[in-house]
Design a protein that fits this description.
The chain is of the alpha/beta class. The model has no long low-confidence stretch (mean pLDDT 94). It starts with a strand and ends with a helix. It is globular and about 45 Å long.
Length: 237
């Protein structure tokens, strides 16, 4: 199995770490506050987990997951990630990240920003459009009829194959949306963002207001293709 480095170990990062350890991977966790703040999570995860600095997690990982607020993407260490596969889970929230003119103008995407910061890395966008609770709850073994699909986008075919294998190991099929430039199709405020995984009686808005997210709903490749197509139609209007 692989070693998964995590730059960011919050709600998404912690969930990815739990799934990875359950699948037999080793994980190296990091955050901006220091390894000592991850003691409880490491203890929960057991002997396959350890805490480190972001640079150390980047160096240790066969695959590295960047899951930090977008406004901090320039803090991601560059040299330790040279040549490595990096999974980007970032989304743009102007109220949190401040205004980013090129994103507002739609001349680039969040993952293309990270790719520009990490020019020698191989970026694959994934796991950004599913609520962290559902990411943990919807994982299923290969062949399970209730297995869900996660969308990926990237410019490097080999990197996407490696990420597909990793996602398979933690309980998900994948749907390739194309190059990084197509990542906007499953970003915030699109039909493919978050909502497909909520059940009929739940919604992202209700969850934001304090209601529970529910157990989540199985999302097939066909359902996600329809959501991606809806996003494309909306943008072309």
């Amino acid at each position: 199995m692989s070693t998964i480095g995590l730059i960011g170990s919050g709600l998404i990062g912690g969930t990815v770490a739990r799934l990875a350890v359950a699948a037999g991977h080793d994980v190296v966790l990091s955050n901006r506050r220091g390894p000592e703040t991850l003691t409880d999570l490491v203890a929960e995860l057991g002997p396959r987990a350890r805490a480190a600095t972001p640079a150390q997690a980047a160096q240790a990982g066969d695959i590295v997951v960047v899951t930090i607020p977008l406004h901090a993407y320039r803090t991601v260490p560059v040299e330790p990630l040279r040549g490595k596969i990096v999974i980007d889970t970032n989304n743009y929230y102007p109220e949190r990240d401040g205004r980013i003119p090129e994103l507002d103008a739609e001349t680039t995407t969040t993952s293309e920003l990270l790719q520009a910061h990490l020019p020698a890395s191989r970026i694959v966008k994934a796991m950004n459009n599913i609520y962290y609770v559902h990411l943990g709850r919807l994982a299923r073994p290969s062949g399970d009829p209730e297995r869900s699909v996660l969308v990926i986008a990237g410019d490097d075919e080999q990197a996407k194959q490696t990420v597909t294998a990793f996602l398979d190991s933690i309980g998900y099929d994948t749907l390739d949306a194309g190059p990084l430039a197509e990542g906007w199709r499953f970003q915030r405020d699109t039909a493919a963002y978050s909502r497909p995984y909520f059940g009929e009686s739940h919604s992202p808005a209700a969850t934001a207001e304090g209601a529970g997210p529910g157990p989540g709903r199985t999302v097939t490749a066909d359902a996600m293709r329809a959501a991606l197509a809806a996003a494309k139609r909306y943008r072309e209007m």
